[in-house]
Q: What sequence folds into this?
């Protein structure tokens, strides 16, 4: 199914995939203007990163807290509690921080991009840009794509840190654990590779979120309803692709 | 010289332009009239290569604009200015940033030079000193004038107007019409406007063509339009609900 035109069938699917690929190719091609577009990239980094940091921090502190609590519940009577820091740390760095941050950002940033570009599309602002010999892919898509990659990575580092702090807070405050016990457990199982792999995943998720927002924003048609529909498509597609990409990257980055 | 040959455009099963032919001489001011939804704006977007035809060509000074390389297309677009139906001002930018957008992002002029041109064009459309305002802070008529200032900022050779007076009160509409006549004269441009506002058409046109069912059904001077016996044109300019034009 081509979810933009709501047409079904192999031809519609191929046409949708074709448009997606052509725009991605043009976006990658526009990277040659990277250094002359730094002002646009930094503006997007501010919108995506700085304006999202509180949301990510709140999400992360509870993610860390609940993972410590759940791990404590699972460990009870089976696994010594000194391993709690290690288990929570691994779960946070490898999986929870990158994926949950990405899903939250798909809702905030992906929807924001799709709604903004969708409104620009239906009010002919993108046509206006093109008529003035300015490539909208270079001016609108590429900066968001690059900013998405950079800021999802940066926010995931923040999320890693805050989630581990949240887990430690719950372990120390509600589970009666000593600081040294939690910290030693965390350090014992910490691998730099896990941390970096989490960031590699985050950068891919950032690209997915920004690109889906741009793609569906550019595909908006027919006024407010069309903008709403494309915004929904952008968020849903980004969320599904994040989970699919997470599985694919897990199989590539973490060999059993 | 702009030449349209056998231009055909379909959207799904709907044929909007059906092998249309048209020639526009350099410096001429042509107004394309026709019923809402008859394909006027679609035709206009072909002149800016914002839409590509299913078949046919638009040739400007001997070059088919749909066969241009990306770089050549960009340099062609630097020679045109488009006034969109609802202005299409960038709502995240100030008025001055809107007017100076092409100067900065396409022509890469120095900020001081760009600032001077922006002020000059805003003064030309009768809106000096509003550069710091956001589009949301100005009226519909002012938006149209700012959009006109933006369209002419890069000194185009061809100006395209999409329904320049739609949504405006008669007085503001006449101000815009006079501004268009003034700008066309001052810049010596070739101008193509689409409208269903006959007052606007009579004011700005050297020549009026009527689009109906995907093709040109009338081509003449404003005076010819007033005196023609063609039933399609008569129904349209007199605003009659009955006649050869079916109302959907």
A:
């Amino acid at each position: 199914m081509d979810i933009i035109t709501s047409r079904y069938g192999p031809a519609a699917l191929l046409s949708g995939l074709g448009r997606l690929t052509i725009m991605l190719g043009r976006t990658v091609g526009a990277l040659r203007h990277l250094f002359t577009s730094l002002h646009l990239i930094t503006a997007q980094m501010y919108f995506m990163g700085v304006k999202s940091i509180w949301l990510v921090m709140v999400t992360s502190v509870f993610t860390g807290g609940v993972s410590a609590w759940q791990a404590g519940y699972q460990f009870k009577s089976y696994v010594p509690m000194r391993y709690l820091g290690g288990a929570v740390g691994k779960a946070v760095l490898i999986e929870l921080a990158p994926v949950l941050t990405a899903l939250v950002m798909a809702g905030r940033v992906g929807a924001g991009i799709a709604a903004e570009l969708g409104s620009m599309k239906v009010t002919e602002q993108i046509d206006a840009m093109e008529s003035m010999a300015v490539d909208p892919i270079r001016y609108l898509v590429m900066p968001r794509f690059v900013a998405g990659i950079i800021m999802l990575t940066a926010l995931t580092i923040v999320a890693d840190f805050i989630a581990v702090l949240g887990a430690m807070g719950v372990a120390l405050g509600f589970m009666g654990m000593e600081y040294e016990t939690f910290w030693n457990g965390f350090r014992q199982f910490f691998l730099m590779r896990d941390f970096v792999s989490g960031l590699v995943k985050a950068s891919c998720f950032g690209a997915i979120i920004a690109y889906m927002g741009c793609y569906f924003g550019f595909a908006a048609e027919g006024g407010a309803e069309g903008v709403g529909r494309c915004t929904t498509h952008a968020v849903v597609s980004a969320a599904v692709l994040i989970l699919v990409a997470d599985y694919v990257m897990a199989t590539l980055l973490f060999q059993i | 010289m702009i030449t349209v040959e056998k231009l055909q455009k379909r959207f799904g099963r709907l044929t909007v332009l059906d092998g249309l032919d048209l020639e526009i001489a350099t410096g001429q001011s042509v107004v394309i009239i026709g019923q809402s939804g008859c394909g006027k704006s679609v035709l206009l977007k072909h002149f800016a290569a914002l839409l590509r035809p299913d078949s046919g060509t638009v040739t400007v000074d001997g070059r088919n604009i749909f066969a241009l390389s990306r770089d050549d297309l960009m340099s062609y677009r630097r020679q045109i200015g488009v006034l969109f139906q609802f202005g299409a001002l960038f709502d995240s930018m100030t008025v001055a940033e809107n007017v100076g957008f092409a100067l900065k992002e396409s022509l890469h002029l120095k900020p001081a030079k760009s600032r001077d041109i922006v002020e000059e064009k805003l003064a030309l459309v009768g809106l000096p000193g509003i550069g710091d305002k956001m589009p949301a802070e100005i009226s519909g008529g002012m938006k149209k004038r700012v959009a006109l200032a933006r369209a002419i900022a890069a000194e185009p050779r061809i100006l395209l107007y999409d329904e320049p007076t739609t949504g405006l009160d008669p007085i503001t509409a006449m101000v815009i019409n006079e501004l268009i006549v003034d700008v066309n004269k001052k810049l010596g441009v070739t101008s193509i406007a689409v409208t269903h506002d006959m007052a606007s058409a009579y004011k700005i046109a050297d020549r009026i063509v009527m689009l109906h069912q995907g093709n040109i059904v009338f081509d003449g001077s404003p005076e010819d339009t007033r005196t023609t016996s063609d039933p399609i044109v008569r129904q349209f300019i007199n605003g009659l609900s009955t006649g050869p034009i079916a109302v959907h």
